[in-house]
Design goal:
Two copies of one chain form a homodimer. The first copy, chain A, is an alpha/beta fold. Chain A folds into three domains: 52 residues, Orthogonal Bundle (434 Repressor (Amino-terminal Domain)); 125 residues, Response regulator (Rossmann fold), CATH 3.40.50; 144 residues, Rossmann fold (3-Layer(aba) Sandwich), CATH 3.40.50.2300. Helix content of chain A is 41%, strand content 14%. Chain A has a six-stranded parallel sheet, sandwiched between helices. In chain A, strand 3, helix 8 and strand 4 form a beta-alpha-beta unit. The first copy, chain A, starts with a helix and ends in a 23-residue tail after the last strand. The C terminus of chain A is likely disordered. The interface between A and B is large, with 60 and 60 residues. Strand 2 of chain A pairs antiparallel with strand 2 of chain B. The first copy, chain A, binds a DNA duplex (16 and 16 nucleotides) through helix 2 and helix 4.
DNA sequence: CTGTTAGCGCCTTCAG
DNA sequence: CTGAAGGCGCTAACAG
């Protein structure tokens, strides 16, 4: 059996209270009693049970992150990694642990139900969601990241519509006509009802505005919106599917991905097909993950401060916990034009020979 | 106030037991009572408190990962990310959450004390450690990753000595004389007493053996062992410090890093100094992180299965929890020779002009 | 300065 | 099929 506070009390000939004080509020008892108690604590190897402690104090020393996908998928996306790292910064400051809560057998709500944490962060959960409801019932302070701001719920994100607009305008300015959009669709997420859908909608709206400005439309035949998983593999698959079907003359000249992680896959797909970037294909992404600038050519993308998002969201959730009034946050995002986007080649596509690669 | 099981019982005119059964063991009570109770549960928005539940059941639905560094630093290392992803796979299978426990204000032991989890994984914690002792006192099943195998403690890792030996032999075979070793030293970790130190020692021993085989020694003047943080920035700093001091003729011709993350920094440092890899400088790493093969030139390294390490370690910890007897695991590692290592240039170093870079 | 006494919210034998 | 009662391990008023 594990040694409990009662064992220490008995052995030391004092009450549980005294033992508790010796550990948590040493000043309040006499030095000798304290020393004797602590000696016995050490001798018997007593460690207070964190769960029992949490039950009485109402504090867990942890903040939770509700993930829309399994952990291994989530961390495969460097952007999500950045968010988690940001949360980690706040945890470090406050001496807290971070509990990652993936859907339990597909059910995000179940994860929300089980969360034993002081405050919670969610990814892409909007107001009115089942999850949001539940958290409110539980009186668990929470902040959404990349969800949707609303009166009864605080959100941290960027202006997705504007960012998407800017990105698409850049592509259109270059003269691209046939464009493939790799969209983070709810269908491909673990939690269909909520995951990323709002963000995706907003970005599509932004793209749409850019098209409209030139008298074009998102649902024109030369524009393809392809659902994609937010991962390298997902991006590769989607791109291959997109490029391999149909004749080359009808092939898009630009791929715009809603996540750099997926853009990485587009690079890989193009390389394997002998399509050179940006000469034959422009590629743009979203997020500006660390590797984006190290790619060859470096990736044109929308920079958004993932780490800052995480850190600020966590700080807000903690403020909520402390009872402060907080409101949602819109962080700055910006277009970063690098080498992966260029004007489309005027003539028909000519696949250059694949460059020799080491190993 | 939050609604508790008592409120439901009162409102439904039944006992707490009945409510509990309605939720956890629906078969045991009559359909009508159950339906009535569940209706009230829904109506009042009752969600059982996970902590109270954990206290009575002794199950938390989470597994913990004790990190030697703050979360944001840990996840900056892609290799650690891989390990976490592997743990995530096992979590997914078992429907568990993952609690990352960084040192609390520098104290890893404090994190171990607080962990409210079913089982724990540690990074680089050896037997006889204060942390190992504590976990044993707590009767908390745990498995070390990259620690040190021992009778009373299960570990998952690779044969670090052998791997290091192989790597250094490759470098020596190429003809390198002046070599810098970027070592993950305990001094640069958050938890000096335990973090990575065993692994570092074993790898140094492996290097040493390779040198000894040629009648050379690790402590010869032309071999420099430089402590480094396991991050790109750490690697860059260490490399710059190494290359900027002293005259170029005495400069190393090869850099061997104990982590690819640090090797990335070595690339960056070389690029900024106009030193070309591998012509003027060979670089080798450890881990084979995903980006390693995408670098230019692709990185020569020791491949070790990070994700598998995490997944297996988690599975072992859970087996321990279930009372099964388990023993430690040595996974397969192998040298992967790519383009970043080559024979040293015979003549004196000639820094080529820096290649123009986009943006 | 220390002990007594209640709970925290839930699950779970044991009776009825 | 349901209820009563005890206990998980700890903290925190309140007395003494």
């Amino acid at each position: 059996m594990r040694v409990t506070i009662k064992d220490i009390a008995k052995r030391a000939g004092v009450s549980k209270t005294t033992v508790s004080f010796a550990l948590n509020d040493p000043e309040r008892i006499s030095a000798e009693t304290r020393d004797r108690v602590l000696a016995i604590v050490a001798e018997m190897g007593y460690v207070p049970d964190p769960v029992a402690r949490a039950l009485t104090t109402g504090r867990h020393g942890a903040i939770g992150l509700l993930l829309p996908q399994p952990i291994h998928e989530a961390l495969a996306n460097p952007y999500l990694c950045e968010i988690v790292r940001g949360i980690g910064e706040t945890c470090e400051e406050r001496g807290l642990a971070l509990t990652m809560l993936p859907p339990v057998r597909g059910a995000l709500i179940e994860a929300a139900r089980r969360a034993a944490v002081d405050a919670l962060l969610t990814i892409g959960v909007g107001p009115g969601t089942e999850v949001a409801e539940l958290l409110r019932k539980r009186h668990l302070p929470f902040v959404a990241i990349d969800g949707l701001a609303a009166d009864n719920m605080v959100n941290v994100g960027i202006d997705d519509e504007a960012a998407a607009y800017e990105l698409m305008r850049h592509i259109l300015d270059l003269g691209h006509e046939r464009i493939a959009i790799l969209a983070l669709m709810p269908e491909v997420c673990a939690a269909p009802a909520s995951c990323f859908s709002r963000v995706c909608e907003l970005r599509l709206a932004g793209f749409s505005r850019a098209f409209a400005e030139r008298g074009r439309a998102l649902d024109a035949p030369e524009i393809r919106v392809v659902p994609v998983e937010g991962s390298l593999e997902g991006g590769r698959r989607a791109t291959l599917a997109c490029l391999e079907s149909g004749d080359r003359a009808a092939m898009p000249t630009a791929i715009v991905a809603m996540a750099d992680a997926a853009a990485l896959g587009a690079y890989a797909a193009c390389r394997s097909l002998g399509i050179s970037v940006p000469a034959d294909m422009s590629i743009a992404g979203f997020d500006d993950i660390p590797q984006a600038s190290l790619l060859d050519p470096p990736l044109t993308t929308i920079r958004q401060p993932g780490s800052e998002k995480g850190a600020k969201a966590a700080a807000l959730a903690l403020a909520l916990l402390a009872g402060d009034a907080v409101s949602h946050l819109v962080l700055r995002a910006e277009l970063v034009v690098r080498g992966s986007t260029a004007a489309p080649r005027s003539g028909p596509l000519q696949a250059p020979p694949v460059a020799p690669r080491l190993q």
